[in-house]
Amino acid sequence: MADDLELRFERTVQADSRIEPRDWMPDGYRKTLIRQIAQHAHSEIIGMQPEGNWISRAPSLRRKAILLAKVQDEAGHGLYLYSATETLGADREDLTTKLIEGRQKYSSIFNYPTLTFADVGVIGWLVDGAAICNQVPLCRTSYGPYARAMIRICKEESFHQRQGYELLMTMMRGTQQQRDMVQDSVNRWWWPALMMFGPPDSESTNTEQSMAWRIKRDTNDELRQKFVNMSMPQAEALGVTFPDPLLKWNEERGQYDFGTPDWDEFWQVVKGGGVCNEQRIAHRRKAHEDGSWVREAAAAHAQKQAVAKEG
Ligand code: ACO
């Protein structure tokens, strides 16, 4: 019986069909999904902070409206993803506790500060661009609820990327000071954006199994290369350069060569030692505590409704 279930699971995965919440799945598959989807959800929620920092200082009503919409979308993405973890039996409260106690990760990228408004544009272009590169293949991930959430999320991420690129185009048509701001921002975000794809394949503990289960569809290095190839022509069109002397077209490979990110910095940030880690978690903790009355009121209302229904 157990063998039949396992065989059916394997066949479904190999046929590129979806595993659904009520289907049998190996414990490791469930655990890996909860880990990855929760980390992804936490990233969306923590990711609201660096840009939220600029909502009240946006230079025009139009830019403020765009930024507000984008940050709200990120809250929505977090909620779809937490819902996807719930279909696997995870408890949202427990995941939030793990995040604010530093027992679960979120993306390294959100531990860097947003120093100027150009950062809003560069985050849209490069950070959301990297997110799209990583997440479009996840629309074909083997777990149904995650794959479906990704379809909607990618559509919204695409708007996020375009608003960033359009903002940068506008700044590049402006004064020399504005162009310098854009270049400075690109210099600060390029390497952290490359780190978003995770450690090199040789140090990636989860890739092999996640690829076998078709949770991940490409390796970290494959996606990083794709992102570099995609970003170079965009940088040229914009009129900025990336801070990497090794970055150049390799005719033989038909791809760009590029330098090695500072993996010591990456691990330091992942372990909590980035510039903004403490601030991000303290802010999330406070928001969660400040919201406790809403959760209590919702629970009390639900209980009243249930009693009324029974009566
Ligand atoms: N930031 C923080 N931690 C990371 C990062 C990163 N950029 N990349 C990898 N890690 C962690 C992994 O979580 C793993 O730790 P764990 O085993 O304790 O969980 C460890 O480093 C080793 O990495 P991998 O074995 O390569 O991990 P994995 O197979 O999960 O691949 C990846 C990492 C590519 C990020 C994958 O989890 C993924 O595709 N996730 C979904 C996308 C996502 O989370 N995006 C968030 C940022 S985008 C946004 O929010 C706009």
Labels describing this entry:
single chain; mainly alpha; two-stranded antiparallel sheet; 13 helices; binds acetyl coenzyme *A
Task: Describe the secondary structure blueprint for this structure.
Layout: H1 2-14, H2 27-46, H3 48-52, H4 61-86, H5 92-100, H6 118-135, H7 144-172, H8 176-195, H9 207-212, H10 220-238, E1 248-250, E2 255-257, H11 263-273, H12 277-290, H13 292-310
Antiparallel strand pairs: 1-2
Helix pairs in contact: 2-4, 4-7, 6-7, 6-8, 6-10
Acetyl coenzyme *A (ACO) binds at residues 35-36, 39-40, 43-44, 47, 105, 107-108, 131, 134, 195-199, 204-207, 210, 216, 220, 270.
Biggest sheet, strands in spatial order? Answer: 1-2
Beta strands, count? 2
Radius of gyration: 21 Å
Q: Mean pLDDT, as a whole number?
A: 97
Computed structural class:
mainly alpha
Bound molecules: acetyl coenzyme *A
The string of secondary-structure elements, in order, is HHHHHHHHHHEEHHH
User: What percentage of residues falls in helices of 4 or more residues?
Assistant: 55-70%
Distance between the termini: 43 Å
Total number of helical segments? Answer: 13
Spans of at least 5 consecutive residues with low confidence: none
Shape: globular
Beta-sheet strand percentage? under 5%
Q: Main β-sheet, in a few words?
A: 2 strands, antiparallel
